[in-house]
Write a structure and sequence with these properties.
By secondary structure, the chain is α+β, with helices and mostly antiparallel strands. The chain contains 5 helices and 5 strands, in the order H-H-H-E-H-E-E-H-E-E.
Length: 162
């Protein structure tokens, strides 16, 4: 069994982060009623292969994982998935058919996500907001050889894993 499969199995069974956040928002706003639970699976890196496959149908997408994959805090896991999803969506919208590469690197301090594209630069405000929402850092810009690079560094110390 590969590292990604071990990580995927370890991460399954966690509460749906969207439902937890919606319930907290309702409490903060002082509403007594509970929000309706979401109908689909929660965004998670355990579903990254399906996300990549969805985008690879019309665009060349390569991906790789470095380091030892492990369960992440739910908010970091969801933010990581959404950052990749939004970067791929923007790449498809602004440079249809251009090659895209996604790289995840796990280290003791957290997770680094790099998304590189061969087309024109993509909007990054949403990516930055997602990274910063979990205490992460975000950098984006053109690559010297052409194309663009978006990099998010998300904190998820090994001792704080889900």
């Amino acid at each position: 069994m590969g590292r990604l499969e071990r990580w995927r199995r370890a991460a399954q069974g966690r509460p749906n982060v969207g439902d937890v956040l919606r319930a907290a928002l309702f409490r903060v706003r002082g509403r007594a009623e509970s929000p309706a639970p979401s109908t689909g699976p929660a965004p998670s890196l355990t579903r990254l292969d399906a996300l990549i496959d969805e985008f690879a149908a019309g665009q060349q997408v390569r991906w790789r994982v470095g380091g030892q994959p492990r369960p992440l805090p739910a908010a970091v896991d969801a933010a990581a998935y959404r950052i990749i999803q939004e970067a791929l969506t923007d790449a498809r919208r602004h440079a249809p058919g251009a090659a895209v590469a996604v790289r995840l690197r796990y280290d003791p301090a957290g997770l680094t996500i790099e998304v590189r594209g061969d087309g024109p630069a993509i909007p990054t405000a949403g990516l930055r907001a997602r990274a910063e929402s979990v205490g992460g850092a975000f950098h984006a810009g053109p690559r010297p050889e052409g194309g663009w690079l978006a990099r998010a560094e998300l904190p998820a110390p090994e001792d704080e894993a889900a």
